[in-house]
Amino acid sequence: MTIDWWTLGLQTVNVLILLWMLARFLFRPGAGIIAERQAAAHAALDEADAARREAATAREAAQVEEQTLRERRTALLDKAREDAGREKTRLVEAARAEIDQMRREARADLARQREDQRQQVAQEAGSLAIDIAQRLLTRLPEDARVAGFVDGLADEIGTLPDATRAAMRNDGPLRLRTARALDEAETDAIRARLSEVLGGPVTLEVSTRPGLLAGLELEAPSALVRNHLRADLDRIEAELTRHD
Question: What's the CA gap between 240 and 244, in Å, rounded?
């Protein structure tokens, strides 16, 4: 068998040219496109991984924020409950204090009302007793309404200082008031008794004052001496109606 080396060589050259052309125009562009696509895929995968990491970080931050908000809400609710409890306690204590104050004031008002009533009753009782005594005293015998009080008036004058008694004796007429009109003998007897106690003769100006009830009242510029039932009743009424 004879080998045609020329033909074989030509075929080999053709094959090499074909391979060069395939590598030049088909394999290399395809490899570049594949490489570009692989690079794009890797970049997309990297971006996806970064997005997943960011999303995971965001979820974790959101969970932390949610937990923080939940804790803050719980703390606010607890504080609100504590504040409400303290305010409730304060209001209850204030209400109790106000009620206690109202009770004290009510008791004080009641005590004042009772004291006022007691004083009013005592005053009315005293006034009634004085009125009854006054009506009874008006029934005294006429002679007892004067004669029974002369010595008492003289005794009252005798307790005055000497200077006062001397002034009464020298100051002119003494004004003598009586519970009823005096006859001449009664006037002379009283003048004699007063002259005795004052240490010298005296002049009297006699007037009648039924309001004295019974007794005598002697007035001078330097002194006023009473010995009559009206003064006694006034003192008794003052004691009966006095509120200590």
Answer: 11
Q: What is the DSSP string of 16-42?
A: HHHHHHHIIIIIHHHHHHHHHHHHHHH
**What confidence tens digit (pLDDT) does each residue in 17-44 have?**
766 666 666 655 655 666 677 777 677 7
Tell me which residue has tokens 């997005």. Answer: 51
Question: What is the spatial distance between Cα 18 and Cα 7, in angstroms, rounded to a whole number?
Answer: 16
Q: What percentage of residues in the chain have a pLDDT greater than 70?
A: 72
Q: How many other C-beta atoms can be found within 10 angstroms of the C-beta atom of residue 240?
A: 15
Give the whole-angstrom CA distance, residue 197 versus residue 80: 95
Give the sheet arrangement for strand 223-228, strand by strand: 204-208, 174-178, 215-220, 223-228
Please give the residue that has the higher pLDDT: either 220 or 20: 220
What secondary structure, in 3-state letters, does 103-123 show? HHHHHHHHHHHHHHHHHHHHH
User: How far apart (Å, rounded) are the C-alpha atoms in residues 109 and 25?
Assistant: 121
